[in-house]
Design brief:
The protein contains one helix and eleven strands, in the order βαββββββββββ. The chain is mainly β. The longest helix has 4 residues.
């Protein structure tokens, strides 16, 4: 797996997708709203599963998936897993910025590690730049992105990066 560090493209890319890191400041103070066709809470396993056209919103953050599983420990959310074909995520990272959008068949966020994983048919777009591959990992604390292909898959997808021309021109003041 190749290591990429793309702060321009991924400034806050999916940063704390289900929490707050680089999201709009007002997102932190918003309630988490979830709509689905079905919901099931398992207190022993400490999970809540939402299925059937799930829409999850918190401020500017929006996740659309077929299924979302929220894992808890001691009444605190530890991990969120969204699946779909694909599951989609979007969030406005800062005022006056275009939304970051991502999709993958599985989107997983591990809160304690501040790690976001886009797994299987993964793509990430922001301000005209895009990154795609079988798997994209984003370390929120370090602002490091890794993208790669699934070597064992018959339809392995090479990493593809598109950087718009405006990224290569100097800004004049």
């Amino acid at each position: 797996m190749k290591r990429f560090n793309f702060p321009i493209i991924l400034l806050a890319a999916l940063a704390l997708a289900f929490q707050q890191a680089y999201a709009l400041p007002s997102d932190r103070n918003q309630p988490l709203n979830i709509q689905s066709d079905f919901a099931e809470s398992d207190e022993i396993k400490e999970t809540t599963t939402y299925s059937g056209s799930v829409i999850m919103e918190r401020g500017s953050m929006k996740i659309v998936a077929e299924k979302v599983v929220i894992h808890r420990r001691d009444d605190k959310i530890t991990r969120v897993v969204a699946t779909g074909f694909p599951a989609r995520y979007s969030q406005i990272p800062r005022l006056n910025q275009e939304p970051v959008s991502a999709s993958a068949n599985m989107i997983e966020y591990k809160i304690s590690k501040d790690m976001l994983y886009l797994i299987d048919n993964a793509s990430l777009d922001q301000e005209g730049s895009s990154l795609s591959g079988d798997r994209i990992e984003y370390d929120v604390k370090q602002s490091v992105v890794k993208a790669g292909s699934n070597r064992s898959s018959a339809n392995k997808k090479r990493v593809k990066m598109v950087i718009p021309p405006k990224s290569f021109t100097e800004q004049t003041r």
